[in-house]
Amino acid sequence: MSxxxxxxxxxxxxxxxxxxxxxxxxxxxxxxAISVAFGVLAVDLGMSPWLxxxxxAVVFAGTAQFAVLPMIVVGLPIAAVxxxxxxxxxxxxxxxxxxxxxxxxxxxxxxLSYGAHITSSNFAIHVSTLPQRxxxxxxLFTTNIVGYVVWVGATVVGAFxxxxxxxLDAFGTDFAMPAMFVGLLVPLIRxxxxxxxxxxxxxTTIIAYMIGASHWTILLAAGAxxxxxxxxxxxxxxxxx
Amino acid sequence: xxCRLERADVDQATSFLxxxxxxxxxLVIRSAPLLLLGARRLPRHVENALHYLPAAALSAxxxxxxxxxxxxxxxxxxxVTWWALLPTILVAILTRNIFITVVVGMGLVAGARLITA
Lengths: 241, 117
Hints:
The structure holds two protein chains of two kinds. By secondary structure, chain A is mostly helical. Chain A has twelve helices and no strands. Helix content of chain A is about 75%, strand content about 0%. Chain A is globular. Chain B is mainly alpha-helical. Chain B has a domain at about 75-115. Chain B is about 70% helix and about 5% strand. Chain B has five helices and two strands. The longest helix of chain B has 25 residues, at about 10-35. Chain B is extended. Residues about 1-10 of chain B have low confidence and may be disordered.
């Protein structure tokens, strides 16, 4: 028998595919619930099902999609919609900057493709894997693509057969996104400085709403949280955790 | 976009363009740092501060979703998601598993609504 050299490449591919898919798997129930709910809501508000699906495919950001959907449906000017989406998604800019040092091994087009798929979940996954080991490209992009396909597919379900699903809130779908973010957040809090960052960001969110800066909430809170975490780290002179 | 003409109150062509513009802006926001920071490094202090971004952003998102309902700040004891939040956080701490956390969280809310309905 000849040595199985030609088979070695597909087997590493298969391993990387499986690993990449397994990493995103825990997030998929939340992705499905949120995205089905989006499809249902969009059609309820009078958007055509295909436009709802296109929105999930083109924007691919739950928080932004829910924020601008009512604006698009009532026909607000493009500039107002785009500005809102930009503010809601400003956190992705910082996430992209945080991952950039670890993604230098990607080509220009691969970085563009990666950037298009940055979400809070993908970020939380890769910010823990990339600094620890070399993540093969197949694994990296499998995680992103599986999440994307499920996201768009779930909007198809919500937009086209949502009428028969009934009231989704009865299944707790409105709690899927908070629960997913709790699940992503808790393992990140491994030190006093991380806990401070999360606490300050949470309190700042409420303060931002009280002073009426609702659109800027996440950005303000994330900035305040980073500053607080960094301050605690500097004062205690401990290495970054 | 042939169908759904009965919903003429929503201009589908304008919606289409708005969605494309939204997608383009979100794509630029997400990709620009990856494309532009390729060879350069951020200042050390900025890089250190960015270590806290995931925890800060996720915490802000959770608080926003829990506290802000329909655009106003508020807490209502009738809202079962509030009562589900603490057990969900406990499950997240004990299991450190997103899948279990989401399923238990949604299950608690669905169960509470089934009982109170």
